[in-house]
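Side project, low priority. Logging it here so it doesn't get lost.
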Amino acid sequence: MENSKDIYDPEEGQRDDTPRTEVPKPAKEEVNDKPAGLTIHWTILVAVTILVIIYFIYFF
């Protein structure tokens, strides 16, 4: 298996440790990620609600 640190794209130029200020090109092309980003809040809310219900059933 190839190590991801060894991959070098000549079009990207030299890499450094400075944080990026713009969105990378592949991220702009992934339009299907937007619905997942919107539903993550509901997923977390449902998970916490289920855990609270389990807590109240078994520990109270």
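Brief comment: Residues 4 and 15 are 14 Å apart (CA to CA).
Revisit when time allows.
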